[in-house]
Design brief:
The complex is a heterodimer. By secondary structure, chain A is an all-alpha fold. In chain A, helix 1 crosses helix 13, helix 5 crosses helix 7 and helix 10 crosses helix 14. Chain B is mainly alpha-helical. In chain B, helix 4 packs antiparallel against helix 11, helix 11 packs antiparallel against helix 14 and helix 13 packs antiparallel against helix 14. The chains are: A mainly alpha, B mainly alpha. Chains A and B meet through helix 1, helix 4, helix 5, helix 6 and helix 7 of A and helix 1, helix 2, helix 4, helix 5 and helix 6 of B.
Chain lengths: 296, 296
């Protein structure tokens, strides 16, 4: 795929032609549609409830308050628990770290074996994996519940870690396989001649040469796992719910008075992790999702 | 590199051991899990899976359940609309972005950032913006137009459009990036030739560029279609399937019957139907892919 990040040709000269005004005008209007929800989230979450009832959701707060944020983080209720979103946050972190490490470790070794150590049938398993990524998760949910129950980790964080490792495998394996197959084969051969083995070549040559793709995989997995809802709700129990599940329970709970500012603060807090990753990673994010998608 | 010499058969043992997770995932979870679910969809499983075969009774019940019928109808409507809209809007955005504009990176960052957010966050924000008492409707009413009506989330005949607004907000930026990569992949000479022949730009796009971008369109189509079939989190967060059953989708039906209503057989039958839906999308695509490869 051609690099999508650089425009072709020389920089255009700034002109105030009718065409340019139309073009930039359209783009700016479109961007407003994209920014609007983010704007509304920030504005709503920094207002007090009386101001929300009186004013409109687009206007900035007259009196800025961070109370909704504190409340969302530490006091918001789900069912009987009133310890706020912080619990979900730490659950998500505890799910995220091992899931990311394990899924990337497994998938990178898979990709490496598929490129450099092909054995009879290895490509068949890979094909199954890729086609498997199109099967709706719903089809495999219950068998997965049984597998986890047999392993004795159903409802635990480790069960969910295993689920993320398994269902992240197709896309990550594809990512690593494509990257490793683009590395010069001579390197691998030279290392073989020097007597390096499977793991030696992997750790001493492949991993150090592939840091960019590890970063791409990291971005892909961190955002993907953080944003997961379905696996969280199926494979964990209320006290180990990840942040997205807890957020949904807080906002969509039917009891109590709706505190829209707290809800929006909670929503924004949950979205903050992927947003930060997105804005830090910049073009790598685009590369990650494009690599993941174009060869689905 | 890939051939295994009999004497060195042991050499590949490491690779085979390393590939065990992949093999298990492919065979046990993807193939095994799918076969298991399809198999048990012909049984009368309630709280626990059991081997009491009832033929197609679960499917019969499924296709006579009004909630399922609504779900399928919604899937068809949402699928058609979202495919047409994501692809056309994504393409138009990509064309706008490809006009050698300034601040391209900024525009792209803005259009793509929602894609980093989860469907839960997306659904909750749009639920708030579309809230009739505080959101767009109330703001427009407060500036004078007191009969203004925009309350899609509480109107059964409009609720799907409410979901669509949110879904498009989240996903079009991504499609735009795919399309932009496709546009950038087109040879500059094509444009020069078209210009020399005096073909207007819009004609070049429609008759030359779009046919050349066929693979990108097909990939986008498949990704978007697979995404719509799996659609779950967004509906849970934004409408919970309401008002009434007006915004139910198949994935919600599966979850509710499997994990809430303790009616596993129904859940298995419904998830099998989801698999069939994916296959309906996937098989023509695989056919096209392989077909075009054979013809070079």
């Amino acid at each position: 795929m051609v690099d999508a990040t650089n425009p072709r040709g020389a920089k255009p000269k700034p002109r105030f032609s009718g065409r340019n005004i139309m073009l930039y005008g359209t783009l700016i209007v479109i961007c407003m549609y994209y920014i609007l929800p983010l704007w509304v989230m920030v504005m709503t979450s920094t207002k007090g409830m009386p101001e929300i009832r009186l004013g409109n959701i687009f206007s900035p707060p007259v009196e800025i308050t961070f109370q909704p944020w504190v409340k969302a983080w530490a006091e918001a209720c789900t069912g009987l628990n009133c310890d706020g979103l912080s619990r979900g946050f730490f659950n998500s972190v505890r799910i995220l770290i091992p899931s990311v490490i394990l899924s990337i470790a497994v998938a990178s070794v898979n990709g490496y074996a598929l490129v450099n150590w092909r054995f009879k049938g290895s490509d068949i398993f890979f094909t199954i994996l890729i086609f498997g990524s199109f099967i709706p998760y719903q089809v495999m949910l219950y068998p997965m519940v049984i597998i986890l129950r047999e392993l004795g980790i159903y409802g635990t964080l480790w069960g969910l870690v295993l689920v993320h490792t398994i269902f992240g495998m197709p896309i990550l394996t594809l990512l690593f396989r494509n990257y490793f197959s683009s590395l010069p084969e001579e390197l691998f051969k030279a290392a073989r001649v020097d007597g390096a083995g499977f793991w030696g070549i992997f750790f001493k040559i492949m991993v150090p040469m592939s840091l960019p793709i590890f970063v791409v995989a990291l971005i892909l997995q961190v955002t993907g796992i953080w944003n997961d809802f379905l696996f969280g709700v199926v494979f964990t129990k209320p006290d180990t719910y990840p942040m997205t599940v807890q957020l949904n329970n807080i906002v969509n709970s039917v009891q109590g008075i709706k505190e829209y500012n707290v809800n929006m603060a909670a929503t924004l807090l949950t979205g903050l992790v992927p947003l930060v990753i997105y804005f830090i990673s910049g073009k790598l994010f685009v590369r990650g999702i494009a690599a993941g998608a174009v060869k689905g | 590199m890939s051939e295994t010499k009999p004497l060195r058969l042991l050499r590949n043992v490491n690779a085979k051991l390393a590939a065990i997770p992949m093999v298990l995932t492919a065979l046990v979870v993807f193939v095994g899990g799918t076969v298991w679910t399809v198999f048990y969809s012909f049984t009368d499983s309630k709280l626990l899976p059991k081997m009491k075969f009832v033929g197609f009774a679960q499917y019969d019940r499924l296709w006579h359940n009004s909630r399922w019928l609504i779900s399928i109808e919604n899937l068809a409507i949402l699928g058609t609309l979202s495919l047409v809209l994501t692809i056309s809007l994504g393409f138009i955005l990509a064309v706008l972005m490809d006009q050698k504009i300034r601040f391209e990176d900024t525009f792209r960052s803005i259009m793509l950032f929602p894609f980093a957010l989860s469907f839960i966050v997306t659904g909750l924000v749009w639920q708030w913006i579309l809230n009739p008492d505080f959101g767009i409707q109330s703001v427009i009413r407060s500036i004078g137009w007191t009969t203004f009506e925009f309350n899609p989330l509480n109107n059964p005949s409009l609720v799907l459009y409410g979901l669509l607004i949110a879904g498009l907000w989240q996903g079009t930026g991504f499609v735009m990036c795919l399309m932009l990569a496709g546009l950038r992949g087109i040879d500059e000479d094509i444009w020069k030739a078209a210009r020399v022949d005096g073909i207007p730009t819009w004609k070049t796009y429609i008759f030359v560029v779009i046919p050349m971008m066929r693979p990108v369109f097909i990939t986008t189509l498949v990704i978007a279609a697979a995404g719509v079939i799996k659609l779950y989190d967004l509906v849970v967060a934004q409408t919970s399937g309401g008002p009434g059953n007006a915004s139910q989708v198949p994935a919600m039906y599966v979850y509710d019957y499997m994990f809430q209503a303790q009616n596993l057989g129904q859940g298995f039958a419904a998830s099998t139907m989801m698999l069939v839906t994916v296959l309906i999308v996937l098989i023509p695509w695989a056919y096209l892919e392989f077909g075009s490869k054979k013809h070079g």
